[in-house]
Batch of 3 targets.
Target 1
Amino acid sequence: MTLHINHVTKRFGSFTAVDDLSLTINDKQIFGFLGANGAGKTTTFRMILGLIDQSEGQIDWNNQTIDYSITDKIGYLPEERGLYPKMKVKEQMIYLGRLRGMNKQAIIKELDYWLDRFKIPDYKEKKVEELSKGNQQKIQFISAVINQPKLLILDEPFSGLDPVNVELLKEAVIELKEKGTTIVFSSHQMSTVEELCESLCIMVKGKPVVQGSLKDIKRQFGKKNLLIHAEMDLEFLKEMSGVVKYAQTAEGCRLQINNEETSQQILTEIVQREGFIKRFDLLEPSLNDIFIEKVGESYE
């Protein structure tokens, strides 16, 4: 069940929110959308779900438009949470599950599983407004997956969560993917996207500026990171050919360099100097490095 987004544009009057976006998101994949606020991520999600119509282009999943006939196979967690604060968790899940064609017994079974999974089994009879923000977010997540969706769209699912709950939610996302769910999500947390996603799209002002598999994106970026811990002054490396960025750290420095050959030249240079080298690591570029450079280029 592949999701195709083909030359999609969305205009609101004279404002273009999404501009000629084309993507293919394969079955049973975790796909990440990145971008600053206003980049067009949420608008794209709403078009995929059929909540708003695109101005141009075509979107289909499993060769058909997403509409009410297949919403029982879709899950959606919006960035702006939409739970009913006065309703108890159990009542809310029964209501939402029934809207997706589930029977009460199946809803309760799924609810019990996820409450146990998130270590909050005693929250079933609590009102949403009685829960902490983090636990409300867990309930919102459960509402998006209660129907065992084949396609799950998560808009900023990790926003505002503490590290423990981020890990719980990441484990849940991976579990769903392993069970066959295609997952599309947005996040400002680069390390989380890097950890979870096989493929991604970085959007700026509605346009895709980077897209493809994470492995290919890193390879095409070209630049590497070099981490050096040494008992010597390393500031001379700022002026070396091939060094793009220099950042001093508590134990040495972190460099961005043009290629692997530059790292060899740096190693040759520092071993000739007086002082002990404790660490010399050549690292892949981080997604954060790529995001900052590509988004910055688009704003110049």
Target 2
Amino acid sequence: MFHLKRNLPHWERALRLGSAALVTYAALSGYTQGFMTWAAYGTAATLVLTAFVGFCPACAMVGRRYLDN
């Protein structure tokens, strides 16, 4: 089975969910138009996915690790 080691602390995962909610609200309420609306949806989906999985590929590429003590 493919396993990803978590590199996001719990507080950052909650922050990512909140940010995704704000970005989605901005896209749905008309603050964005055209391509930016789709980019906002993609950003929100990425934030939600990384928050639920607990692994961020961009953080892993720069060597960030989360030590759960």
Target 3
Amino acid sequence: MGHSAAVWDHRTAIEVTKDWNGIDQVVLRNPQGASARVSLHGGQVTSWRNEQGEELLFTSSKAIFKPPKAMRGGIPICFPQFGNCGSLEQHGFARNKLWTIDNNPPPLPPNDSHGKSFVDLLLKPSEEDLKGWPHSFEFRLRISLAADGVLTLISRIRNINGRPFSFSFAYHTYLSVSDISEVRIEGLETLDYLDNLCQRERFTEQGDAITFESEVDRVYLSSSHLIAVLDHEKKRTFVIRKEGLPDVVVWNPWDKKSKAMADFGDEEYKQMLCVDGAAIEKPITLKPGEEWTGRLELSVVPSSFCSEYLDH
């Protein structure tokens, strides 16, 4: 795949360009006009637009687009840890590393490529990385955009070490919403969650849908594979499907936290919501040679469709 040419395949295009830091980014497009943009810095999806060109992911107007920091917005990959524990940087190192385009990935099921515009990325640890986290791995990430605009991220992490290792993981997805006080999440009712605002104490969700009127920072445990985020004002619903990712992080910093973050606008909490497919409570353990797959699928439907979607 050359750096200048677009590669056409099934009427779908992949284009590799450079961002303003000179770092390669991949633009995926579908014939209907939807697009997704992926930076090789962090393997991070930085943009996902529908056919009308509307941006579906949130990125802060104050985001710092300068390695080695991960950009505030889009879909950063949190690996090998979520949060802040031990000697590693917050949310692990994968989102701060330069990934490469993998031109010979091991095969995925045919439906994961058919009629889709996709790119395969690869992350392997450097000598430096192994000092901080002494485990050899291959992390393959396929990001695809389907003809219907569905965005799919498939992570495959293989242990090529002589001994087992464990990790936690999240697709830290920043959704763009019209007004946080008009948003509700369905599909997490009755679940237990760990509340990061209360020393990770465990509670049970009592509401029949989750709505927002103050800061929220929770890890919902053992959720179903389908969650819906309803944006009342836009009359549209994000449908999140996931496999291999039992937990769901729900985060909105609200006003106080927003003012404290240098790379986040004071009022921007109103236009965003993080809903992450994740594996946090029970870390994934891989024996030598074993591989784990975590799959996230994001789609947007008119809210009137939503009840049928959730019933399936």
